[in-house]
Specification:
By secondary structure, this protein is of the alpha+beta class. It has two domains: 119 residues, no CATH class; 81 residues, no CATH class. The strands form two sheets. A nine-stranded antiparallel beta sheet has the order 4-3-2-1-6-7-8-9-5, with no helix packed on it. A six-stranded antiparallel beta sheet has the order 10-12-13-14-15-11.
């Protein structure tokens, strides 16, 4: 064998050996990384239901035009809500527990504080580890601990998870009638663009009526009235109260300067 051929062969073998060594190191490092809580791809999720202690059950479904809440309010979900909620699916598992060695009551899993249903996959969230402050989670027949920060959003109130507009952003307002007066098309823009200061569960004592007609024929009924230093815009069919400022209220009523 010629010397140049031999050198080329040795060099090729060295490259192969180096490649094998690099691959082995990568696999070793991957093995050291914490495993995710689930293997569910958030991009493929179609439905989410959350039952949390002290909070109304929330249900969401993915439609052609984005994520919508279906319970307790049939309204579009705020854009960042679902990605924020589903972030828990990839939470790093810090420890896997042998369920036979633990009393579920001591882990807060006899009566989970939160139950998350993602396309039929059930995750139950219990108490907090007193030392590391991790959250106990039961899923797929196993009990694990994850960083608590990944589960914190699961107990939020539904009012902070819906779109922040009075009228759905994709809807077209045609005209608005105030207290039985002739409908006015010039009020459409104010109702379309108003973003409330706060959204709360109802009811409300507001008594000025507003009938908003949309391009698809839908008619939405609201009541407007002063509430302390602000105004409330109450939608009775879903028992939801939008808090707006005085200038916003005057624009909605067609009294803006």
């Amino acid at each position: 064998m010629r010397k140049t051929t031999r050198n080329t062969l040795l060099l090729a073998l060295a490259v192969v050996a180096l490649g094998v060594g690099v691959y082995a190191e990568i696999r070793r490092e991957e093995g050291l990384l914490p495993k995710p809580l689930t293997t569910i791809d958030p991009q493929n999720v179609k439905s989410v239901t959350i039952e949390a202690t002290g909070v109304s059950t929330r249900r969401f479904e993915h439609r052609a035009n984005g994520w919508w809440m279906t319970k307790p309010y049939p309204l579009r979900a705020e854009a960042e809500v679902i990605p924020r909620l589903l972030n828990v699916l990839s939470a790093p598992v810090r420890k896997t527990l042998d369920a036979k060695e633990y009393d579920l009551a001591n882990l807060g899993l006899d009566k989970p504080g939160v139950t998350l249903n993602v396309d039929g996959a059930i995750l139950e969230f219990g108490g907090e580890d007193p030392i590391d402050h991790d959250r106990y989670v039961r899923t797929g027949g196993k009990i694990v601990r994850i960083p608590d920060r990944f589960a914190m959003r699961l107990s939020e109130s539904p009012e902070v998870e819906i779109d922040r507009h009075l009228i759905d952003p994709e809807a077209t307002v045609v005209e608005v009638g105030i207290d039985g007066a002739a409908p006015r098309a010039d009020l459409a823009e104010a109702w379309k663009k108003t973003v409330p200061l706060q959204i709360l569960p109802g009811p409300s004592s507001a008594n000025t009526k507003a009938l908003v007609e949309l391009a698809d024929g839908t008619k939405l009924e609201f009541s407007i009235g002063r509430q302390n230093d602000s105004y409330s815009v109450y939608r009775s069919d879903i028992d939801l109260l939008y808090v707006v400022g005085e200038a916003q209220a005057q624009a909605l009523l067609g009294k803006a300067n």
